[in-house]
Batch of 2 targets.
Target 1
Amino acid sequence: MSARRILIVGGVAGGASAAARIRRLDERARIVMFERGPYVSFANCGLPYYVGGEISRREDLLLHTPESLWDRFRIEARVRTEVVEVDRSARTVRVRDLAAGTESLEPYDALLLAPGSVPVRPPLPGWERPGHFVVRNVPDVDEIRSWIGAHAARRAVVVGGGYIGLEMTEQLHLRGLEVSLVEALPQVMAPLDPEMAGWLHRELRARGVDLHLGDPVVAFEEPGPGEAAAASVVRLRSGFRLPADVVILALGVRPEVTLARQAGLELGELGGIRVDDHLRTSDPHIWAVGDAIEVRDRVTGRWTLLPLAGPANRQGRVAADNICGRPSRYEGSWGTAILRLFGLVAGCTGVNERTLRRLGLPFEAVHLHPGSHAGYYPGAEPVALKVLFHPGTGRLWGAQVVGRDGVDKRVDVLATALQAGLTVDALADLELAYAPPFGSAKDPVNLAGMVGQNVRSGLVRPAQWHEVERLDPARALVVDVRSAEERRQGFIPGSVHIPLSQLRERLGELPRDREIIVACASGQRSYFAARILEQHGFRVRNLTGSYRTWSAARETPGAATWLMGGTGGRSPARG
Amino acid sequence: MSARRILIVGGVAGGASAAARIRRLDERARIVMFERGPYVSFANCGLPYYVGGEISRREDLLLHTPESLWDRFRIEARVRTEVVEVDRSARTVRVRDLAAGTESLEPYDALLLAPGSVPVRPPLPGWERPGHFVVRNVPDVDEIRSWIGAHAARRAVVVGGGYIGLEMTEQLHLRGLEVSLVEALPQVMAPLDPEMAGWLHRELRARGVDLHLGDPVVAFEEPGPGEAAAASVVRLRSGFRLPADVVILALGVRPEVTLARQAGLELGELGGIRVDDHLRTSDPHIWAVGDAIEVRDRVTGRWTLLPLAGPANRQGRVAADNICGRPSRYEGSWGTAILRLFGLVAGCTGVNERTLRRLGLPFEAVHLHPGSHAGYYPGAEPVALKVLFHPGTGRLWGAQVVGRDGVDKRVDVLATALQAGLTVDALADLELAYAPPFGSAKDPVNLAGMVGQNVRSGLVRPAQWHEVERLDPARALVVDVRSAEERRQGFIPGSVHIPLSQLRERLGELPRDREIIVACASGQRSYFAARILEQHGFRVRNLTGSYRTWSAARETPGAATWLMGGTGGRSPARG
């Protein structure tokens, strides 16, 4: 049997990962990888950090070169080479050498499509002028760096508050630029619910980022005479005009399906390539991986687009196995993701409350603010935790974590629990590693499980941050059980104040004809209060996450209406 | 119905946790907690850090006082009060006020025993002289600090290389003392296998700790004339004599069962209190939690003693539920634990290889050394990872992790996976949070799963570090595929050197009549090499963990014989 010819379109995460695995499975195969850009296997997720200078050596972004791929794996990697057509019946691809302008036909036994995604361009005038950049590959960041240098850029506008937009905001700020971040939605980092995204908004504002939420760009205007802006003046729907020396367009990505469409492969409703559990397309000789495909959301069972490096790499491995005749399945994605934003870290896994509401799925939500490790050991920081679960079965729907320490660990533990099909109750029993520098005897994840158990067993009924705004004072009363000192620093309007230590003596002050919603700083002392009141015959609910969650939600304009599926609000104009 | 009387013996982790939960479940119960020492609810695990000064404020160790327990929970906490007798038929306890010397009888409806453990004292002359300390409670660390100050102590000897011994070694060293650590076994931190403990030995030596392994103390001698030693001269079996200004006795703990034995409660073979899944003792009105009880090892199904704060706290909650008529189960422990030692962190979950060998259970072991996060982002550190699994089912037996960054996260993910019953294969598919500062597109845990898959599917056969020492050169050859530069820094004796990039051209140099064991730095490139060689018809195995694991094992004297159940070796004499 002659060696199989395996062609791969795209040489970054999924494509490169598959190529190396194929070689390990088949030493004789001819493996050819085509990459349109000048680099294979570069550190996609590192690009913003090279702009900011945290990654100082450009060569660190280049994980492999065509030479190193050949030396180690006998993979032929052809850069600046585009696959322009697939002839499925002949099993050939037409390949264009972009430098030489020549074309050739390459036969294949198996074809793997890993073309990635393309940045969404705004349907607006002006974005194609100089000084406007996307962040997709190494040449993009080369250009951004040289533009910033050449124009001594002082003011940047970042359009889009997703991962890339936030990372670029951070990195440009670290470089010393004044940064405006503009987001059409009322919140950044859409996988978070709005009250959790509120922490990011607060952090951005605290760092001096000029944040515009719920306020889309309507034009990139040419600077007027006397307007200092090397790139453009970014005009927002609200009327704000932001002069920019450099504009970063980070409006998200869409699957690159030009070739798949030309080849007549089946696409999904979301515009990605449709694959089966073996990552095979509608053609039995063609597989596809990465940002270009639609995957199953493992929580909801729906198709989704999830342009993340982790899944792409795993898909590369699975596709390689199947191409080499080793049956292997990729059953979908869980949406686990993480972001560092200045001193804050935010991560999530599974689905959020907004999605659950949209799909009409039953859920319960709990919020907590435990310390990242034992409070008596220096350096503990509160961790804001939101856990969503099915009220009937207790099965986890998803979780969100925001804080300054220990966030990535809790996200990963919760992601593992979610994938393993654990209930919220089981989180209480997880035996996690405890020593004072790392956690607590009751880890934040354990505490989330205990809160979940308390809710599911009826020991406490939670109230949510978004209910407090709309309370009818004739029917409910918020009781704040924090200390006087804490209350002085801010409180929920309309709440009455009875410190927990006085509660048992002051029961007579509380109404028995209305529901009582108890609140403290984090929801823990108010839980104690709820138990006292309930046992004394009051109708009571505990404000989950209490003051911290409630106040974080106020950082997101129109958070409650946005959560319920509305359009949310817009940041108040400032300055 | 009159209020129930619930008495609790012991006011630290399990006891305090139970008391607070009982109050939340039963506002009317009378809850009385008896603590022999002067403090309730102190930060047991924080004690070493107060000696070292990392925890600078003594009051931070005191999580609650009798006053705060009364204010918040209406718990009567009586310190310096010892329960000296239980009358099970009368359901009373006899209580002695240690200050006043008076006794009283207290009736109970439910009794919870949370007496903790007592430090093991060495059966040797001299340990009771001044300057010899255990680390059990706040008065102990008060005394250690004042002794060190009063005697201007310069030299410390720590006896015992468990968690407390290692933490005290670190903290005394941080205080500027010269520290000798003496351990009777050939390794510290017994839950680790010897090649993983080797990293701790290397760290201790690198920090200048005088480490004596496999060398038990035989006497604490009075210093001779002219011997400067404020406490004693510690004599080891090998003949070493270590002058000590302060001696820390950290030989482990045994369950405190004085009261349980007096009461005639059933004890287990390991000397702990026997309880059922509801943490009820052999008396239906008495429950027990914490260091004093035996628990099921969830991996092996055997009884074990596990004196850790995390399980104690969870047990407190479960006992409280059962005492209050809410059925709740504690089904055992998983042995998850963690330690920080200077710049290194070591953690584990489940059982180790030594235990699996002793019990004759079938297992496969893989070692890895991936980076703690993406290599192109600054600050990544290698993480030494060992994963043990059942070769037939793939079910995890346990895991060990050692490194300078990201260790606690991987331990917790692996602990969660173990508890959830995942296979090693499933680790490959875990969707963990990836951004450059936190992980890699293929997280170390994913990589462990991929290695496990490769082993289980027969793609590669692992060789172990302990096989390399005993290789018959007529039957096997070690081939080192690292670079020349790496090889110059050390290699496995008897190995031949062919860099991976030259392997395909130099196949003719390799024997076909012998098994080839390929090695590199971490086991990854040698896996690539193994795949090449196997596909070219060689008999080949991959040295799992390769040079890094092999060289770490050499830090543990007699590591291989100790792993197999022998006695191991002794550190070579130095200086």
Target 2
Amino acid sequence: MPPAHPFDDDKLHEECGIFGVLGVQDAANFVALGLHALQHRGQEAGGIVSHDPEQGFNSARRFGYVRDNFTSTDIMETLPGPLAIGHVRYSTAGSKGQTAIRDVQPFFGEFSMGGAAIAHNGNITNANALRRELIERGSIFQSSSDSECIIHLMARSLQRDIPARMEDALRRVEGAFSVVAMTRTKLIGVRDALGVRPLVLGRIGPEENSGWVLSSETCALDIIGAEFVREIEPGEMVVISQETGVESRRPFRQKKPRFCIFEQVYFSRPDSILGGRSVYETRRQIGVELAREAPVEADLVCPVPDSGTPAAIGFAHESGIPYGMGIIRNQYMGRTFIEPTEQIRNMGVRLKLNVNRALIRGKRVILVDDSVVRGTTSRKIKEMILDAGAAEVHFRIASPPTAWPCFYGVDTPQREKLLAATMSEDEMRDFLGVDSLKFISLDGLYRAAGEAGGRNNSCPQYCDACFSGEYPVEPADMIEKGFKLKTAAE
Amino acid sequence: MPPAHPFDDDKLHEECGIFGVLGVQDAANFVALGLHALQHRGQEAGGIVSHDPEQGFNSARRFGYVRDNFTSTDIMETLPGPLAIGHVRYSTAGSKGQTAIRDVQPFFGEFSMGGAAIAHNGNITNANALRRELIERGSIFQSSSDSECIIHLMARSLQRDIPARMEDALRRVEGAFSVVAMTRTKLIGVRDALGVRPLVLGRIGPEENSGWVLSSETCALDIIGAEFVREIEPGEMVVISQETGVESRRPFRQKKPRFCIFEQVYFSRPDSILGGRSVYETRRQIGVELAREAPVEADLVCPVPDSGTPAAIGFAHESGIPYGMGIIRNQYMGRTFIEPTEQIRNMGVRLKLNVNRALIRGKRVILVDDSVVRGTTSRKIKEMILDAGAAEVHFRIASPPTAWPCFYGVDTPQREKLLAATMSEDEMRDFLGVDSLKFISLDGLYRAAGEAGGRNNSCPQYCDACFSGEYPVEPADMIEKGFKLKTAAE
Amino acid sequence: MPPAHPFDDDKLHEECGIFGVLGVQDAANFVALGLHALQHRGQEAGGIVSHDPEQGFNSARRFGYVRDNFTSTDIMETLPGPLAIGHVRYSTAGSKGQTAIRDVQPFFGEFSMGGAAIAHNGNITNANALRRELIERGSIFQSSSDSECIIHLMARSLQRDIPARMEDALRRVEGAFSVVAMTRTKLIGVRDALGVRPLVLGRIGPEENSGWVLSSETCALDIIGAEFVREIEPGEMVVISQETGVESRRPFRQKKPRFCIFEQVYFSRPDSILGGRSVYETRRQIGVELAREAPVEADLVCPVPDSGTPAAIGFAHESGIPYGMGIIRNQYMGRTFIEPTEQIRNMGVRLKLNVNRALIRGKRVILVDDSVVRGTTSRKIKEMILDAGAAEVHFRIASPPTAWPCFYGVDTPQREKLLAATMSEDEMRDFLGVDSLKFISLDGLYRAAGEAGGRNNSCPQYCDACFSGEYPVEPADMIEKGFKLKTAAE
Amino acid sequence: MPPAHPFDDDKLHEECGIFGVLGVQDAANFVALGLHALQHRGQEAGGIVSHDPEQGFNSARRFGYVRDNFTSTDIMETLPGPLAIGHVRYSTAGSKGQTAIRDVQPFFGEFSMGGAAIAHNGNITNANALRRELIERGSIFQSSSDSECIIHLMARSLQRDIPARMEDALRRVEGAFSVVAMTRTKLIGVRDALGVRPLVLGRIGPEENSGWVLSSETCALDIIGAEFVREIEPGEMVVISQETGVESRRPFRQKKPRFCIFEQVYFSRPDSILGGRSVYETRRQIGVELAREAPVEADLVCPVPDSGTPAAIGFAHESGIPYGMGIIRNQYMGRTFIEPTEQIRNMGVRLKLNVNRALIRGKRVILVDDSVVRGTTSRKIKEMILDAGAAEVHFRIASPPTAWPCFYGVDTPQREKLLAATMSEDEMRDFLGVDSLKFISLDGLYRAAGEAGGRNNSCPQYCDACFSGEYPVEPADMIEKGFKLKTAAE
């Protein structure tokens, strides 16, 4: 496995997408399609587990894209049956930089009452302590993944059926998670009490004979022609079988929801519906808010492709400044590319992006991007734009400064690598060398996301820890490793 | 090799991209980057030949993307030296549907005065006759490619040096072609007398020690930081060496240039400069012309991604109707995908495109696309848009009706498969089932391409055979196979 | 993974070879060499685990030959450190006929006091019961291998150090086993109380700085230049560290040893020393005994290559009949071969063996083979010999009739597939269609193996269950599945 | 492609095996089997070309063993039809040490009257001159193989049918060659006028509907159940079609045959019949002659496996000294193995061979080997035998000293690397450090090969240039490169 491309590392990355289907023939085919639609949530590896009444559980786990691994008849024929779940993941490996295939989900466990497979999106913040305890009691871990704790907790539960064992297990788990799981006959979906990560329910097929779908996002319902039913609620567990339909349980103490606001800004696909709102519309509205909060005289509004596009459209519309494609993305950019010589390594971001010189030359350009993480890519883009003869370069960022790492299932650099953790907005502007730099305000972001009154600071409507440093669940493992929470002074 | 994706077959496809570099260390690395930037001109296979004074000629030819094949140090170290050329190709194989690796260019020939390699973009319209003649005289063909004729003609030339042999060879060849070739010390570029296919010259590196670049498009100069010098002129051959620089020859009888107008509409990348004009600007201007020629009351202008985007921006700007992303492209779509069941096969284009339902619902939508070939994809897109609740669907097409196949290096279906060959505009509208359908006029297209007076019908400024049926070079091989030219009556 | 070749299935197959090294730089390299020398004990897959003080535990597991998998620097560099163990295995999978990579040993477990890896040769006869019990208590099994029970039993032991936990675990295990295991600093070897499977101890390197080796056979000491020290004794556990050397423990109740006599006949390599005796010499002596027990007038003694060769040499020497290579083995036979048409399928064993016609023609031929299992190959060889013009064909078999399956780590067909389970010697002769057929007597075999007085029937010196049906350890799992032990009447 | 194993390089290597079949369904399957039986003649790569009336010519060429490449239905189904030829080759590449796939035969050429494919065993001694001439006239070579000259000479012939063109071509060619070729309907076999390399004719299938086979050796007839008909005679060309059967032509001036005597000593398989004599019997007889020419008192005769075995059997029989397997070969040795550290590299030949210590200890051992080339392996074997405690080591070599390179299709080191080119027999004995060393005399070898009167020095019955330095065809290309023929003084 080659390392992820260096020019992609200047983004936050969602770590996982999950998908499950019950009640259609060859369910694994639908899962493959769903995972393909969720590929933006994890490009490193994917896995599918299926169950067939005659052939039992089967699984396949592979590194690489869904389209390359789960497309051949050879593979798909090994995954028969009307029930299947799947998972795509992004590498979050540390110094070694590489995931082993045994870390690729779904995880499977054989219990005395039968097998179960689970796929997990999120992060368990007390995984280290749980793991120590389980090993002490004689569990053998096969992966380095935190998610494996869940299956061991289930194995040790004294409950008689698997959904009840999963309730037992998830009550021991802290953090943010959405889970899709399966037994021989049931499809199960769970969201943590805060509902940080998304999970939706859909139906597929003709009414008289329809099946059920669980998915991280609605865009993956569309690809298989499934109908959106509703979101799984924060703190809800749904246990679905062909016979009894959807049974809703509430295993956790109720809390006020804190959905991840960065899903709105960047992670989710623009054609998904989150919390009843179009992601595309929220992003376009962020552009509108930005144009109001931070207007500037200019000749052209350009998105940094592709994630800045909806906000740029909103900014251009609100400001009346023409919209244009000043930066062209290479469609054939994969995860890797040649960098054999110093000479070539320096050309960096050009492998992925090229400036539309004829359009840029002589113009005052507003560049709209979704976020600034390390700032490395932003600097290179600015240089390309100036090299192409722009008269002025103004950055407008569709999120507040990202000053804190996320511990809830998002791959973020250490805090000291985040530009906004060490610099003020003005310092960042000087560091990037642009004529102006403005981030949307936290209130503006909340307004764009539909909270007309802005952020409720005493009880925020979203998890915005990456901007605010206010962590709704204590990141116990990270504190053990030395992470310092925000102090009163900050 | 998997077959190309069925949902891509509703486009015309450029068949090749060519690139060459002389005078920089490890030239093959630059060629790999250049080919990566030209990948849109051919995704099936690629090849590079390099020459090093000590290690002689070396070559590597592979199926698949440049980024997957020419990125490892393992491969690139086998291609040393300061001189290299490369080629990317799109499959145009017939019934067998598959190219052999021996058909992948560049082709290499060893002559008594040394070796030469050539890479060819275009099509030789008298290849069948040439091939028969050469075999009769004792040449052994190794590939099924028409381009191999050139190397055999060179081998039989009585000239003493390789560039002169190439002149001899190309004077026997009819059709449309741009060629990049190399000897042990020289980089050679040629365009046919009409200049149908593009080829540009660039410089790379510091002035005191700069190297030379030949490329199908300027966007591939940008990726390696090369400076655009000029286009190779129609009918020109340039012979470049480190010692003597660029020598210009004129091997062919002079003709009036007929550059391919479809390069402006679709083939070339929007960030390239063709004939002194920005491709992006031409396309945006097509949208402006379309809005003038075929206005319609509507709520939203949506591009069919990604090729319809610049024209949609121009249409929105000119018409004042808001621009929005009504269709979202899956970024992880490769050349292949699973279609194991009838059930899934029917979902078709959804694998690649999804409708942004929240944006579309209830709106009168103008869809801007670059062209209509068979019409199969257009129908599916229309259905998706209506399923999402659009009130009206209006198609605006950024090219005239494509009614004739191209025989100059473009992969087109047989004439009877072209929707516009058998239907009028109104029939097509009914076939597609949309509220209105309008193509830009041929004159409008010429105006957008900078010809203020429109098309000079007595002596057209471009090759527009795919729209007009007027072929500037007789397609001899195809006529032999039964193709009927346009009659006076048509 | 292709299935094993059909023409190899007429042999019993040893299931595993194990090897471990402590105290030399890059121990994994030595393990790879040792496994290569033990490849005859298992060709399907191999694995190595190593430990390095700085880089911790690392492992690699692959299908196929050692020489193809553990030869590249790429792989071997991922297995650093002075301590490593390895395993080769033969597939014993049931109806699915295929092993998953997760079934490939060594198995690894992380305990609270650190990790351990184990490699196991043999078979656990109470594995089903153990597995049920462990799952009931919350263990998650990752493989379908019986050997995984050991690591889970270790995980649940209350002992404070790993060797003591292994003692605990192995006391729960019934069956025949030799085990090589490792912790971060210790190399561990164990043989079951009967000592059914072999295990030897060696030293490597200069005396002042020597390391330790554990191996299934002595031939694997030779390949790395290690010196044979002694056999691990039946019922012995050795715990070896660099600091304290070899510590010997006795975890099991003492029993009279019953070493597997088939190791002498076929499994072990002829250049190994087992129980102080040369395997080659034992086999040659079997030929001598056979010549005495079952003489016949003939012109030529031919081995069935390669396993019949030493006995054929002994038979020829004792009988005075010339020895010759009447059957030639194809050296390039792998595990698989083409059988696309009925026509070709019928040629069967010819792919592997060919008759030396010029030598055979007109002669009375004695064929010496090691064993008869199903008899299918023997019939084909007889036909080839007769086709080549032999006057007479006499089979002499270097083992008694194989009438019972082995449950101690050997892959044997079900009892009803064993020719000798359903036919008398005369019936087998007629079935094979040869002029005579004689097996060595059980007493003759014991004499050849050094027991001058033959078999001690009240207390046999070896495990010979495959010949006698007397199982020294009750095959509990198989009895549960319906296997019938020998009755008093048989 | 990994380099050949260093411990194999102390042998001469036959460069090629050829095989062809006409008149059976799916002829390519039979060719694959035949090539498998000829694998000892070339292990680096193999290729098959087939012709089917409907699907025309098809080909597949691969690096590696036949069993690994031409076994899957996937490949074999691409090679339909009743006519096919194939080729296996040993790498003879020079400094680069690697063959390109385009050098793998059969070669194919399309002529005006249809296509033809040829496979060639041997060496063209005037290839350089031919190649220069053909390039000068405009032929494009695609490989670095000398054999490609034949197809270009055919392309330029003025004859009207392909067999006649092949006659034209082969009359221009000097050297030693056997050729198998095919047109759309004909199978063709040719041997050069001296008949240096072997080629035999066989029939396959029932008499009323039989097909034809051409093969380098008879052992490959056996594997497909074909009947040996006769050898193709030196200087003969056979043109075979289903309609007309075998037509024999004599394209070359007649000469006295000089079959390669090393085929008898080492190259051919022992179960083949060459010139009416069993190869096994000739080799056994060499052992008998050696025992008479160079007797020595000893306790054991051991073959160096596997090529020394027949001569060792003959030596033991004639001398009355017991025969035994003192050296055991690892059956799983492939072409490559790990040599990551100096430490391991030194163990050398142990990877492939191990001494049977128990047998050797204290004995006076006669080692019988087929030849001594560089002497490197012989030294290592001697050391292993002495380390194992042998009292004396006597080498007996089943061929005369190899003092000259072969230029007729055999891979030999440069002359100065041949031990016998620079040392006398006594010097070699001292170099190897053995108690005695004796080679069979040239006369003894001829007697064993059936020439009762020994070698006819005025007109030798065989080509024995590697021993005698008397080259029956002038090695023109090598003389051009500086090779010195034997002088009168030598």
